[in-house]
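Quick one: structure tokens for this chain, please?
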Amino acid sequence: MKAAETFTLLLGGALAVDDRVRRLVDGSRVIAADGGMVHAEALGVSPEIWVGDFDSTDAALIERFPDIERKGFPPAKNATDGAIATEEAIGRGAKRIIMAGALQGERTDHGMMNMLLAVRLAEAGYDMVLTSGEEEARPLLTGASEIEMPAGALFSVLGFSDLHGLSIENAVYPLDAFEAPFGLPRTVSNKAGNGDGPVRFGLKSGRGIVIFRPHDFSGV
């Protein structure tokens, strides 16, 4: 995928910046959403635009980035700042979107909405990644997919519907054509296998998300 088609969105949740996050973001174009601009310095990036209603952005933050183009929206709006940022990225040609600061923060509803939005966009053909540094998430859709995880890393599969024919390979607890009704906790707390290669997933029908902790090898 062309670098010009990869965008990182700086969102307002927590972001633990480490080498893995830097590699994920490296070379991408960047859009900041409201208070997510606080992550720009730690990442060493300069967003090409700063969007949102700026209700969580103080004057000091704006003064630190006076030259970044800002695109404001009224607080009484029909979309989250994260959704506004994704629309801006898509309008600028995004095919792959990394939502940094998307998973952990004060607002559980925003974190959940980011995951739902990522699944919806993945169904529309976009390559979606969410990260807080401590956790990463990737949509799980019908068909075959694979995710690179460190050996032994903790991961879970959360279904946003019934998951039919779920298969997991190269994991401590593999599955083969498993039927997972919506809300079943069976797919929580697995571990990436010690074998070579990524964790591989297969799904006959349904939608969900894989959340993994790249630095957590604590067990299940």
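Residues 108-123 form the longest helix (16 residues).
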